[in-house]
Amino acid sequence: MKVALIFGGRSGEHDVSIVSARSVATALRNGGHEILPMAIDRQGLWANDIESRRVLEGSGDRPDQALTFTGEYRIDPRLLDNSCDVVFPSLHGPFGEDGAIQGLFEILGLPYVGSGVAASALCMDKVRTKRIFENDRLPTAPWVTVTSHAWRADPEALRRRALDLGLPLFVKPSRMGSSVGITKVIDTESLDAAVETALRYDTTVLIEQGIEAREIEVAVLGTTEPRASVPGEIVPGDVFYSFEDKYLDARCQLIAPAPLDTDTTERVQRLAVEVFRLLGCEGMARVDLFLEKSTGKIWVNEVNTIPGFTSISMFPRLWSLSGLDSPGLLDELLRLAIERHNNPR
To answer: Of 81, 205, 300, 303, whose CB neighbour count within 10 A is largest?
Structure first.
C-alpha cells in the first residue's frame, strides 16, 4: 500500500512525533509498503517531498535529535490528488491527536489509522474524560478543574478546593500529552507555580489527588472487537513519569510484561477494553491505569489515541510480547483503517 506518513506538527510534541515516525517508517518498509512522507513544521506548514524525506531519514531515536525544517504548503498537495491509499498520522498532542487533522481526513474522504474526530478530541481532553469516567462509575482519582479566567479572578478559592483533595497533587494541562506541563505538588507553597506552568500550555488545568500506585499501561487494538495486550509497568526515575523519563532519561524502567498475577492481569485488560469502548476509540490506543499499592484497586488515568512508536515506547513493545511484531502491527492498523473507511459505523 501507499501510506501517507504525517509527522511533526504544531504541538510541543513535535520532535517526539518525528522520532515515532522513523520507527513507523521502518516497520512499514519491512512490511513491503511504500511511504509518502509528509512533514509539518512548528508553524503548521507542510514541507515538500524532498524536505520531508530528509527529516524522516535523519538519524537519532531521541526527541532532541530531531532535525529542524521549514514547510511551504498549507496542505500537502499529495493528499488532494489521491496519491495515497491510507494515512498514518504519527502526530502527538494538539493539532494531531485532538481530532483536528482527523477532521481534515474525513473531509478529504481518506482512510486513516486511529480514532475518529470525536474520540480523538475527547481523549485529548483530560477534564472531559474524567467526567465520563465518573458518569459511568469508573474509578478515577479525585480531581478539580481550574480555568485561566477563574484562576485570575479568585485564586484563593481554587487553592482551597485543590488543597482539600490532600497532598500530593498532580497539576496537568487538560489538553497536552507526553507529560508536558505536568507538576507534582508536595507542599502548599508549590501549587501556584504548578498551576501557572500548566496554564502556559492550556487554558484549562486538571488538578488530581496523587495515588500511591504502580503505573500500568495496556495497548488496545481493534474497532468492533478490540483486544488488549499484555500489560506493562512504568517505574519512573523521576517523581513521576515525566517527559524526561519518557524520552531522555535512562533511569526510568519499562517492565514488560508487568509482574502481575493472573487475576490482576485479566482485570486491567478488561478495564482497558471497557475504557476504549466507552470513549469510542478505534484502531489503537494506549490505556494508562494506576494499581493502588495498598488495596490493589485499579484506577483509570488516561487514554492516548496515538501512542508513541519510538524505540522505547510501550505500545509496540506490548504487542510484540503479545505475539504481534511491528510490521504485523502496522499491517493490522492499516487493515482496520481501510475496513472502517469502507464500512462506516
So the answer is: 205
Distance CA 91, CA 204 (A): 22
Query: Can you give the pLDDT at residue 12?
Result: 82
Whether 118 is in a domain gets the answer no
> How far apart (Å, rounded) are the C-alpha atoms in residues 282 and 284?
6
Give tens-digit pLDDT for 275-289.
999 999 999 999 999
Classified as helix, coil or strand, 290 is strand
Distance CA 27, CA 33 (A): 9
Q: What is the extent of the structural domain holding 295?
A: 123-137+212-342
Helix or strand holding residue 245 (H, E): helix 243-247
Is 201 a residue of the active site?
no
How many whole angstroms separate alpha carbon 233 and alpha carbon 241? Answer: 11
Catalytic residue among 23, 115, 174, 178: 178
- Are residues 332 and 216 located together in one domain of the fold? yes
Active site residue 270: no
Q: Is 200 a catalytic residue?
A: no
Answering whether pTM is above 0.90, one says yes
**Geometric angle at alpha carbon 136, from 130 and 140, rounded to 5°:** 40
Same domain? For 9 and 85 the reply is yes
Q: Are 23 and 311 in contact (CB under 8 A)?
A: yes
Q: Is residue 174 domain-shared with residue 222, that is, in the same domain?
A: no
Is 60 assigned a catalytic role? no
Grid coordinates representing 79 are: 493528499
